[in-house]
Amino acid sequence: MSCTSTPIMLRELGEMAEEDFRPLSEETSSFCLATEARSGPQVIQPFPRSPKLIRRTGAISPKPSEQLPVWLEDLKKEKKRTESHLESIKKRQANLNTSSEAMKQHVQECYEELHMALQEDEKAVLDMIEQDCRETNSKLNRILQDWNQHLGLLQKHISTMQSAQQSPTEAIKELFPEDFTLTSCRKKLDPAEEQIKMNEEKIQKLMKVLRNISKDLKAQLQRKSLLLDSSNVAIDKLTCHKQIKVTSEGRSMSLSAEEHCVPNDPLRFDQLYCALGSVAFKSGQHYWEVDVHCCPSWAVGVAYGSLQRRGRDKAAKLGRNRCSWSLEFQDGHLLAWHNDRHVALLVTAARAAPNRVGVFVKYQKGRVVFYDADTMRTLQEFSATQTAVFDRAHHQFTEPLYPAFRFFSPRDKHTGHHHMEICDLGLF
Q1: Residues 309, 273: Cα–Cα separation, whole Å
Q2: Pairing relationship of beta strands 377-382 and 367-372 according to DSSP bridges
Q3: Contact 223, 373 (CB under 8 A)
Q4: What is the pTM of this model?
Q5: Which pLDDT value is given to residue 390?
Q6: Chain CA centroid to CA 19, Å
Q7: Residue of 332, 330, 325, 267 lying closest to 300 (CA atoms)
Q8: pLDDT for 328-373, tens place per residue?
């Protein structure tokens, strides 16, 4: 190709490009004019819209008259669903009333059995007292009859003597036998007569037994409401100090003299003989009991999971921080602890330290109560309405609560008696 032909070819190519570009410019101009006429002079659309966008923006909404059948069908379906749901609620309500009546009947039967047992026992006791009274009365009647006879004889002798005072001596001899003496007219008192009385000693024993039964019954009736909130508490083996041995079911533990071969877990107490429960309480009401009668010194309570597990300082000890609440018995002293403050509880022969400790938690109210589970005597309550000793006490719980347990360091080598057990309340 020669050099003279090159300009000609470039000119032809430019004219072709000009022709190809002109229709596009005209199409663009017409589209911009249409857009301006439709939307006003403010909107400028330099390029044509995509066919998909044009179809979407240009779609015509269905008319209300066309939508009415669809809406009507949807409303009918909703009406049918609502009617079905109402029937379900009414059925549940009817079943609720039926179940409630059945429950009331069962409760009444249980209380009637209690009433019958008490009435039968009351009748038996009253009959026993009545029988004792009749027998005693019969004995006293025989004695009264004997003494009445003696009184009659005395009156006869007196009358005879009064008449004899007016009679001659020969007549007096006829009225009284020769061996008559005043000594024969005297009746000796029988010491056995003083022993004829009702068996008061037996009645006193009976009254003492009845008072104990009444006290135990009241305690059990109070315990009944707590047992309805009883929880299945178990010990978390991962939290136990290495010298604490836990049974397979996790409901009993004892302190041994040697450490067990267990892994070093960050949840484990490394210095204090402590353990926590396996399940945390985040809401509701919960009750459990711990048998401590085989342990000379112990602590039972609740704690947050954030309780420190390392070391022996207050942050790890039950009741010595804001993360735990405890009841402890040590060196003959019964103490309630929280936030490193304590209350000393009275321990006497009549009010001994508990053999079983009941623990009640009402999470939403921030309440912890310790009971003597044998007598249901309240030992200590922690709540928002606490005494001045716990003036920094909590108003509500801020973390899940775990049951907590602690053995104190034994003062002798006989550690086999350091034993605690979570009581089986028989409701699981």
Answers
A1: 10
A2: antiparallel
A3: yes
A4: 0.66
A5: 62
A6: 94
A7: 325
A8: 999 989 999 999 999 999 888 777 889 999 999 999 999 999 999 9
DSSP secondary structure code for residue 286 in this structure: E
What is the three-class DSSP state of 128? helix
- Which residue bears the tokens 């002109």? 22
Helix and strand counts by DSSP (H, E) for the chain? 5, 13
Tokens of 31: 């589209």
The residue type at 269:
F
Q: What single letter denotes the amino acid at residue 14?
A: G
Structure tokens, 204: 């006193």
Phi then psi for residue 55, to 5 deg, are -65, -40
More confident residue, 335 or 97: 335
Strand partners for 288: 359
Cα 355 vs. chain centroid, distance in angstroms?
19
Q: Which amino acid is at 326?
A: S
Asked whether the beta carbons of 285 and 229 are under 8 A apart, the reply is yes
Yes or no: say if 162 and 176 are a contact pair by the CB < 8 Å rule.
no
Alpha helices in 165-252 (DSSP H): 169-175, 200-227
User: Two tokens at 375?
Assistant: 């007598």
C-alpha 160, offset from chain centre: 86
| 165 token code pair | 């005072």
Q: Which two tokens stand for residue 33?
A: 């004019």
Contacts of 229 (CB under 8 A, 6+ apart): 284, 285, 286, 287, 360
Half-sphere exposure of 345 (CA within 13 A, CB side): 21
d(CA 34, CA 342): 89
Contact 303, 401 (CB under 8 A): yes
Tokens of residue 177, six digits: 């036998």
